[in-house]
Amino acid sequence: MPYQNEPHPINETPGTKHYCTCGESGNKPYCDGSHEKLETGKSPAQIKISEEKKVFICDCGKTRNSPFCDGTHSKQ
């Protein structure tokens, strides 16, 4: 599953999350281990969410604020 040119908006709940950074997960924006099977050289971003909030997870692979979208996809 290749990168897409838009973020994943998620109403996230508290807890530790593992977000895909390789672009290959079949469960985006969450990691499903595809980076290991496909030997992408990337690892998931492990983030602790402390309170319920809306987050935008990058799926273009070019953000400078991984795993969060910084709008880079719209500047291309």
Can you offer a commentary on this structure?
With 76 residues, this protein is mainly beta. 5% of the residues lie in helices and 26% in strands. It is built from one helix and four strands, in the order ββαββ. It has one helix at residues 34-37, and strands at residues 8-12, 15-19, 45-49, 53-57. The strands form two sheets. It has a two-stranded antiparallel ribbon with strand order 1-4. A two-stranded antiparallel sheet has the order 2-3. 18% of the residues are buried. The model has no long low-confidence stretch (mean pLDDT 93).
Largest sheet: 2 strands, antiparallel
Strand share of the residues?
Answer: 25-35%
| Rg calc | 12 Å
| Strand order in space, largest sheet | 1-4
Overall structural class, as computed from helix and strand content, comes to mainly beta
Order of helices and strands: EEHEE
The tally of strands reads 4
Q: Uncertain spans, ≥5 residues at pLDDT below 50?
A: none
Distance between the termini: 21 Å
Distinct helical segment count: 1
Report the helical percentage.
under 10%
Chain-averaged pLDDT: 93
Note the overall shape: globular
